């Protein structure tokens, strides 16, 4: 089939590479300009560079809603559009233009985790598996019929970076497998159960600020979800920002006020956590590695030279 692609960052790059390696013919690529947004500078393999290396025409757009783009797509005459990690609304006159419509590739197990940063949100929420879904695009966000979907398990120590590598490897088989079904004439696909749908926003600084009223298990997953190269989860100690690079749920139960720097346990320093910490029925978060405001990284047992005092959400 003749394929036009809309995509960005490494997700779009992997999708384009899969298309170039397939029997399908890539006739036009549309991608976003480079961004200085913290999350968009990560996994930033260039879709434009890959397309140009293979002689595929490229258009750079923030939004795909101008008349020139529409005419270029019409002239390219694609049988289908494939989109992956396109960051802005695609209007119906674009996604309905090809005779097979538009196939969107999304890194979650839809209908859950539609929207942005699905791997990070899924890890924070303790989901047992993550994956990639190829679905037909319609007027609703990530809501069209599912053509193909594959899952991978989330391990007990997996970080968001680990899950990125697990799921990015699914892009090629999911995308090409879905296109092969469409090319073979299949038109009936799996309807999404909209009662199970959830939608998530882009992550920002507020989303990585540690709230010590969260249970320790949730905080431990937040730390793993904000693994390098993502911005690290952070708190404040004596008015200065402190990044938490590694932590585990404590073995013991610790009671008191959330945020209290309480006790050395193994290789970590336990911080009291949980909205009901006063009951003493819950574990704390044992921080094992930190980074200071001036960029010095060290074991938590070296940073916390004495117990007592508090970690806080704000200076």
Automatic annotation (TrEMBL):
Its EC number is 2.1.2.9. Keywords: Transferase. Residues 1-169 form the Formyl transferase N-terminal domain. Residues 204-306 form the Formyl transferase C-terminal domain. InterPro entries: Formyl_trans_C, Formyl_transf_N, Formyl_transf_N_sf, Formyl_transferase-like_C_sf. CDD domains: FMT_core (cd08369). Pfam families: Formyl_trans_C, Formyl_trans_N. GO terms for molecular function: methionyl-tRNA formyltransferase activity. SUPFAM superfamilies: FMT C-terminal domain-like (SSF50486), Formyltransferase (SSF53328). This is Methionyl-tRNA formyltransferase. It comes from Streptomyces doebereineriae. The lineage of its organism: Bacteria, Bacillati, Actinomycetota, Actinomycetes, Kitasatosporales.
């Amino acid at each position: 089939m003749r394929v036009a692609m809309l995509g960005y960052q490494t997700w779009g790059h992997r999708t384009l590479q899969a298309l170039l390696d397939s029997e399908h013919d890539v006739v036009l690529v549309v991608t976003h300009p480079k961004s200085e947004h913290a999350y968009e500078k990560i996994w930033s393999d260039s879709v434009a560079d890959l397309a140009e290396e293979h002689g595929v025409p490229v258009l750079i757009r923030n939004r795909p809603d101008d008349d020139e783009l529409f005419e270029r797509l019409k002239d390219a005459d694609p049988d289908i559009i494939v989109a992956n990690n396109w960051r802005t609304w695609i209007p119906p006159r674009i996604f309905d233009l090809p005779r097979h419509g538009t196939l969107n590739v999304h890194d979650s197990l839809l209908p859950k985790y539609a929207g942005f940063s699905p791997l990070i949100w899924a890890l924070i929420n303790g989901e047992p598996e993550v994956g990639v879904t190829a679905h037909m695009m319609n007027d609703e966000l990530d809501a069209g019929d599912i053509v193909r979907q594959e899952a991978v398990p989330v391990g007990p120590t997996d970080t968001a970076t680990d899950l990125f590598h697990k799921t990015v490897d699914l892009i090629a088989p999911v995308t090409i497998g879905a296109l092969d079904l469409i090319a073979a004439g299949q038109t009936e696909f799996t309807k999404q159960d909209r009662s199970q749908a959830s939608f998530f926003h882009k992550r920002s600084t507020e989303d990585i600020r540690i709230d010590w009223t969260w249970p320790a298990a949730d905080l431990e997953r937040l730390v793993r979800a904000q693994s390098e190269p993502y911005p690290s989860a952070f708190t404040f100690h004596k008015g200065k920002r402190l990044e938490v690079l590694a932590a585990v749920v404590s073995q013991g139960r610790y009671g008191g006020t959330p945020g209290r720097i309480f006790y050395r346990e193994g290789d970590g320093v336990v911080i009291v956590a949980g909205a009901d910490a006063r009951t003493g029925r819950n574990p704390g978060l044992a921080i094992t590695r930190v980074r200071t405001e001036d960029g010095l990284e060290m074991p938590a047992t070296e940073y916390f030279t004495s117990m007592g005092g508090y970690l806080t959400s704000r200076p």
